[in-house]
Amino acid sequence: MRDGSYTYKLFHRSDFSAFWALFTDNLINLMVLAGICQFVFQMPADIVYGRIVPGAAIAILAGIAVYVGLAKRAAAEHGRDVTAMPYGISTPVMFVYLFGVIGPIYWSTNDPLLAWQVGIGAGFMGGIVAAMGALIGPWLKRVTPRAGMLGTLCGIALVFIGTVPLATVFENPFIGFASMIIILWGLVGRFRLPFNIPAGLLALIVGTIVAFAIGEAKISTDGVGFYPPMPYIGDLIAGIQHLFANPELFLVLVPVQIYNFIETMNNVESAEAAGDHYPVATCQITDGVGTMIGAVFGSPFPTTAYIGHPAYKRMGAHAGYIIGVGVVIPVAAFLGLLAFLNNLIPVAAAAPVLVFVALSLITNTAHSVKTDHMAAVTFAMMPHVSAFLMVKWGSLIGALGAVGVAGLPQLGDEALTAALLQQGAHFEGHLALSQGAILTGLIWGAIVASVIDGNFRNAGGFALAAAIMSAFGIIHGASLHWPELSGVSAGYLISAAFLYIYPLFHKEDELVNENVVVEEAPTTPAE
């Protein structure tokens, strides 16, 4: 339908419900990063609410402007309604920047201003790395099976976007259950709520009312004021200079930004699986440039095309929902309303929305790949379970130290590792899987899917790439280093050799997997 009679409407009534889901997602990220910066890293409120939050809002606004334009162009090209890509602060990368860049600077110098300066310097340099993903992103998308790209996203969704918020719900069941049942009814079950109230909005209202009733919410105007966005060029330069004076920080920065542009690639693939097609290179450049703009205006945290497009597509959203976020988040940031909302809305009331996003991504993946490729999806999810375990084991050691337990060994201590193994906790194996989990999940998902399809050369190529990356410490390593042949990289080389050589000595009919049903990956029909 390209005869000129089609008109794409930016706003649809379904956008209202989608807006509350995406707004809540961004709001939770902003609440978390603000709380950690202020109370863990002792940054003064004028830095947190006067610089970081407005800078993040400017980055979100810049990216949303581009993604609205991409949605209009996609709708015009295909002659049908599309859902704009959701956009915001990358949740996994946000935590890496908090505890891998900002935290170490603060803990070593006890200088929150320097920690913030290094943070925005890292954000700016990381934006450059993320934008460079546009050079290889389209090629990676062509050679990587959908099961690998979506499977590793499902792993993130399962453990970080789904399990952690669900635990928050169970920590505060009075509030969490009240919100959760509304999300299940209105968004998962898709049943109509009274007066067509968006489920996300009603869940927040009910959760907040319950919180007031039990004394866990309050109205406070502390921090409310006018915080116009300002460029911080001098602070940015100081942060970049510190980065180059301490290049070991790049060992954290580069791998996580490689993850970030691959995350964007995966999310674009997720949107395509749901029926909406966007140029992956343009999206990666947008995310990188958005991150750089945010850094100039004071935010260290990378932005990205969000996980969860299929959830908003399922709601019937157009582009209005991200436009709404692009208006409300900056207004709240510039007026200091985030501090007000931090006191007003309990996290347990908003957490069920994230659980819904995780459920939607995993179920949509199951419908968008071949049935036999679900084995690859499952394999791709597993490294993220190891990453989750490593985070929580580290938290446990830190908590024991915080309550005064003396003489604690560090994770990685030989005696502790041996003791953990005796208790059935395979620390070394989980550590290796956790290091570069997003890439490891993608690689193994691609290998498994390619083997299932009998595409051994493609599988061997991914195994060879994994051998090279593990030799440099990009995956299965604590940091980047000069190439060295470890047991893991040697294992990848053996696997690659098998996948390349073994098929040469067998007839083609002997390499056909008779148990696999050949079928096209299902796609969402055009609207």
TrEMBL record:
Membrane-spanning residues: 20-41, 47-70, 82-107, 113-136, 148-168, 174-193, 200-219, 239-262, 319-341, 347-366, 387-411, 431-452, 459-479, 485-505
Name the UniProt record assigns to this protein: Xanthine/uracil/vitamin C permease
Organism of derivation: Aliiroseovarius pelagivivens
Keywords: Membrane, Transmembrane, Transmembrane helix
